Amino acid sequence: MKTIKLLGFVAIIGTTILSTPSCGKYDEGPGFTVLTKKMRITNEWDVKEVVSPNGDSQTDSDDSYTIIEKDGTAKAVDGSLTNTGSWEFSSDKEKIRFTYNYFGVDVTTEFTILRLTNKELWLRDEDNYIYKSEAR
Known about the structure:
By secondary structure, the protein is of the alpha+beta class. It has helices spanning 2-19, 37-41, and strands spanning 43-51, 57-59, 64-68, 73-78, 81-90, 95-102, 105-116, 120-124, 130-135.
């Protein structure tokens, strides 16, 4: 009898979880994850595709990538050149802001996060270009 009650309880809980609508923060997901946003974004990201505002898609095949560290540092790596800067979430973690120093001038760029998993990061810039990155 205990087994039947336990199976019934598991079935009710499973049905409730599966029927609950997802409420993810980002347009492209994920709907649910146990990893924090900071845990998911901390990685080495390689842009694989750039989508223009009119929908044209271009494959990115250069050897540049971005390293996002848990301590708030970011590194833009392009071949043998590395520029170290910083990153932070903004707008209630719906955006990410990068700041790098170029020739003595701090340059800050902000992106809207469209998708953030531990393997994919999609960002939209202020000109509506979408950068689809994969973890290295």
